[in-house]
Design a protein that fits this description.
The complex is a heterodimer of chains A (801) and B (183). Chain A is 30% helix and 17% strand. Chain A is of the alpha/beta class and 801 residues long. Chain A has a seven-stranded mixed β-sheet. A six-stranded mixed β-sheet of chain A has the order 25-27-26-29-24-28. The two termini of chain A are 52 Å apart. In chain B, helix 2 packs antiparallel against helix 3. Chain B starts with 12 loop residues before the first strand and ends in an 11-residue tail after the last helix. The chains are: A alpha/beta (801), B alpha+beta (183). The interface between A and B is large, with 43 and 28 residues.
């Protein structure tokens, strides 16, 4: 090879974009490098640097001093920023702009480009019209949790702040993630528990002999975070392996976590976990192996639960043989697992997916009761935890303050909230009632709906039902950087900037709290997009509340104010300018924190460190719960047979497969679905469906094929992945693919893209929490027929674009 | 009955099984030092009291009921919401519901709950709506608030004193707090 070619190759490898350089110029690569600026920011996938040249992002690399094990997802952020799926200008749906309303045409007709003022005036008028018609109870702020990005200017908060200052709006109670367990656990164990810091990795590594992953898949879920992930847990998991911890995976899928830990696989029938827990408790009781002393000293109501367990109160003894029929797990396996757990220091890592099913309220309660009978709650490396898979669960806490975010302020007169997954009922059933934690809520009549920073056509089960409901409203407004499926269903869409187009500030992580990150503006806002903060300020102006909204503060004022409360500013004396210049501040984590064991204080002194329950103990029986007199939720944990599951022989004749819809591997819900990262797993551009080899044979389908997955509620296309890692009778489609109607003029048209919620039901968990039951779904599969292209990520038709 | 000018009659008597809280329209505006049994004590912010009579220009005699736990008086068994403390002696037998009288400066009383909790409320909405919408204090019992704060104080990154401060506000205004009618 001649020298000039060697030079060329060397320079290409040096990392710049493709160059056509003459071999003699040694410094060519350096010229491009010197014109490239490195700008720090942070995301739900990790802290990163954007490499910017001539105003364009040419690369994204991770901040390796804050991200121990970067994920490829973070590299897709640049693609998302310049994606054609961006909302570019304010637009209004054609018939709406013409004053014809015609909500029935939402999602079916073109948009018209308008000026910012026109769009804002129309939105403000719609709000005032709704207020006139039904008061502020006619306004629905569907902007849900703060998951859109880790910064301080969360769109849902900015929306809530706006509504609070004009009299309030209907909001959300609880959530989709832990909608059943969250409201239930406080009365049982004196804490929500699902988000609580459980213990430090060090404690598990040193003490745990058996780790039961009850549906938890930390290798997957820890890739993304509510804050900015540090991915240190993966290093800790390597230590778990070295420590020789025996891992048992109870899951219909042999997940990545199962594979990494080489776990024993108990391939349980979805929806039957509580039955297995009951049987284990029965076995521990009958053999006398359960911890009597722990039950007596630390729990309340075991004597009221026992007759149920032994079959004295309902005639059904909860034996392992009984559970075998329900779980399809051999009785001996169930009993052996109970033996293994009670005779070794065992940590039960519960998940959240199990409680997103019928009677979800029973799941955590049963795990807590089982853990109580095992008696290791409060011991290092033992007990139970529902957050081991979340936010770096196991991270030790710095104990120092990082930064918070903007607040929504006091609620207006109207502060009624409805349980999260009741969205369609809220719109469809004004005047009707829903129960929630012993209370009764009456649905008001909604005229106006706003969604910012989230996509209800995405997280709400039974998409067709929601689409139908949204077509009944007077006005739907969406504030979004991208043409999400929800944006396509709106009347007015405002283009918002992305986090790469403005300054913000973030922390990491929820438990470690050891980083503050500057989220610096990387590129100029594209097209006519404006910051969410500016959009809501402009809206507030039309109500005379703009001064209240901003308090005359610029974005920078807010960021400085938030930073000023941090340990970095107060104790370490790092000025805002110094922090902003450097890009991040780091805190030390004290050794003490690595010793943290949840409930150890309670265990040491249950009187002075009583739990915040009515009795101060773990409530296996709750008089409060019993007093609600619900038919599907009682005073102690129980097995309630689901209606939609593999045990329903009638329904299985039509729909023989149980569909689970786990959190995605390469997204946060719908986020990042419009980027090249999805190519890592999509099948012919559709969301994959995992099918066992036996089921693939039964349905005559093969790996890589597009099929139609359907039930009474809807149908979608999905790409087949045949794998031995899923049990027979169960299929899995990760949630979050962008909905793409094949023919929007037809009701219940097939989704081209693979949005799993067309198949799930919006039926509530029980009268207790009325939460989501997305994981209680049966489906069937057939050939797809004619397959049209997936246009989920294309903008809609726009006049004047 | 002896009548002594300037001296205070102390009465402590058992009220049986009455609930600790009675309907009231006067409340403690700011935690204050008071005289109970002619000894030092404290009445805590938000506690409902009934004004019996003026003692002098500055002070009044008030009456209130609570559940005794040694030198502390709570609203109920869970010892979640503190009403008063004594520096010496006890309020009664454990878990006994007692009526207590105290002398307090008039300036510490208010008939407008909103006024009492203004500052707390602002802090609550500032710290507790950064990720999700606000939950009205009345939407939970005081025990539920205790439970929820355990998880949430970490996310809101509250210092211990801030958690105490917020906890007082939330429990006083909870569904079974000092203002049960406000639902």
């Amino acid at each position: 090879m001649d020298s000039s070619r060697r030079d060329f190759l060397r320079k290409s490898v040096a990392g710049s974009a493709a160059l056509a350089v003459s071999g003699s110029s040694v410094g060519a690569a350096n010229i491009f490098e010197s014109r490239t600026v490195k700008i720090p920011s942070a995301s739900h996938f990790g802290a990163f640097y954007a490499h910017v040249r001539d105003g364009k992002i040419v690369d994204i690399t991770s901040q390796l001093d804050s991200d121990a094990n970067p994920t490829v997802i973070v590299k897709g952020l640049a693609d998302r920023n310049s994606s054609n799926s961006r909302v570019k200008y304010p637009v209004v749906r054609k018939s709406y702009l013409e004053g014809k309303g015609r909500g029935d045409l939402r999602g079916k007709e073109e948009f018209v480009r308008v000026s910012w003022d026109t769009a804002l005036d129309l939105a403000a008028d719609a709000i005032k019209r709704a207020q006139k018609k039904g008061g502020n109870e006619a306004l629905y702020n569907a902007s849900y949790g703060g998951w859109s990005m880790p910064g301080a200017f969360k769109p849902n908060v900015l929306a809530g702040r706006f509504f609070n200052q004009i009299g309030g709006a209907i909001g959300t109670a609880g959530e989709y993630s832990n909608g059943a367990a969250g409201p239930t656990n406080p009365a049982i164990v004196g804490d929500m528990e699902v988000y609580s810091i459980q213990t430090a990795h060090e404690q598990i590594i040193a003490n745990t002999k058996v780790l039961v992953l009850w549906g938890a898949d930390p290798y997957k879920t820890q890739r993304a975070g509510y804050s900015v992930p540090n991915h240190r847990c993966y290093d800790a998991y390597e230590e778990y392996k070295k420590a020789g911890i025996k891992v048992v995976l109870i899951d219909p899928i042999y997940t990545k976590s199962g594979q990494e830990f080489n776990a024993d696989w108990i391939k349980i029938r979805p929806g039957s976990d509580v039955a297995m827990m009951m049987a284990m408790m029965h076995y521990l009781y009958k053999t006398g192996k359960y911890d009597k002393a722990f039950i007596e000293k630390y729990t309340h109501g075991f004597d009221k639960f026992l007759p149920y367990l032994l079959g004295k109160s309902d005639g059904v003894e909860k034996t392992a043989a009984w559970a075998e029929k329900l779980t399809e797990i051999p009785a001996k396996t169930i009993e052996n697992l109970a033996d293994l757990m009670v005779s070794n220091r065992t940590m039960i890592a519960g998940n959240w997916a199990m409680q997103r099913a019928e009677h979800g309220e029973q799941v955590d309660w049963s795990i807590i009761t089982l853990a109580s009978m095992i008696g290791q709650v409060g011991l290092p490396g033992g007990g139970f935890g529902f957050s081991m898979h979340y936010e770096g669960g196991g991270d030790a806490a710095s104990g120092k303050r990082t930064v918070g975010g903007i607040s929504q302020g006091k609620g207006g007169e109207v502060s009624l909230t409805i349980p999260a997954s009741r969205m369609s009922d809220l719109i469809n059933k004004p005047g009707q009632k829903v129960t929630y934690k012993g209370k009764v809520i009456t649905y008001p009549k909604i005229e106006f709906m706003l969604s910012a920073g989230g996509s209800p056509i995405g997280h709400q089960p039974n998409t067709n039902e929601l689409i139908d409901a949204m077509r009944k409203l007077d006005t739907v407004v969406v504030v979004e950087p991208w043409w999400t499926p929800t944006a396509k269903m709106a009347d007015i869409v405002f283009p918002a900037t992305t986090t790469m187009e403005r300054d913000d500030i973030a922390s990491g992580m929820s438990y470690s709290n050891d980083r503050i990150y500057a989220m610096k503006q990387i590129v100029k806002p594209r097209y006519e997009s404006k910051d969410d903060y500016e959009i809501f300020t402009l809206l507030a102006k039309r109500f005379g509340t703009e001064k209240k909204y901003t308090r005359d503060r610029t974005a920078k004022d807010w960021l400085e104010g938030l930073y000023s409360k941090s340990y970095a500013r107060r104790e370490m004396n790092i000025t805002y300018e110094e922090f902003w210049d450097k890009g991040s501040v780091h805190y030390e984590i004290p050794d003490e924190a690595r010793k943290y064991v949840r409930h150890s204080a309670f265990r040491a002194d249950p009187v002075n460190n009583a739990l915040k329950t009515e009795t101060g103990k773990i409530q296996i029986f709750s008089e409060q719960f019993a007093s609600y007199n619900y038919k599907d939720f009682k005073g102690h944990p129980m097995w309630f047979e689901p209606t939609e599951w593999l045990g329903n022989k009638e329904l299985m004749k039509k729909y023989p497969l149980h569909l689970v819809s786990p959190h995605p591997t390469y997204r946060i819900h719908t986020q990042m679905d419009n980027t090249w990262v999805q190519n890592a797993h999509k099948v012919q551009g559709r969301e994959p469906i995992r099918v066992s080899p036996n089921d693939a044979k039964k349905f005559g389908i093969s790996d890589g094929e597009i099929v139609e997955v359907y039930n009474d509620r809807g149908s979608i296309l999905a790409g087949v992945v045949v794998t031995k890692t899923i049990r027979d009778g169960v299929v899995a489609i990760e949630e979050g693919a962008w909905y793409s109607p094949e023919d929007s003029t037809k009701a219940n048209t097939r989704c081209n893209s693979g949005q799993v919620n067309l198949l799930t039901s919006s039926r509530p968990t029980s009268q207790m929490a009325s939460a989501t039951t997305a994981n209680s779904t049966l489906v069937s599969i057939r050939k797809a027929g004619v397959v049209s292209p997936n246009v989920a990520y294309n903008p809609p038709k726009i006049q004047g674009a | 009955m002896k009548k002594v000018l300037g001296k205070i009659l102390i009465s402590l008597f058992v009220v049986g099984t009455l609930t600790a809280l009675v309907a009231s329209d006067t409340f403690i505006f700011q935690t204050a030092k008071v005289k109970i049994d002619n000894k030092e004590g404290s009445l805590y912010i938000g506690t409902p009291v009934k004004v019996l009579k003026s003692v002098d220009e500055k002070n009044v005699l008030v009456e209130f009921s609570g559940m005794a736990f040694g030198d502390k008086l709570y609203t109920g068994k869970t010892q979640s919401l503190l009403m008063a403390t004594k520096t010496e002696g006890s309020f009664g037998d454990k878990e006994q519901i007692v009526k207590v009288q105290a002398i307090i400066e008039k300036g510490y009383l208010s008939e407008v709950p909103e006024e009492i909790w203004e500052e707390h409320e602002e802090f609550f909405y500032e710290m507790c709506t950064q990720c999700h919408g606000a939950y009205k204090p009345q939407s939970h019992t005081m025990l539920e608030w205790d439970a929820i704060l355990q998880t949430m104080s970490g996310f809101a990154q509250l210092y211990e004193d801030e958690t105490e401060y917020l906890s007082r506000f939330l429990k006083a205004n909870s569904s079974n707090g000092f203002y049960p009618e406000q639902k």
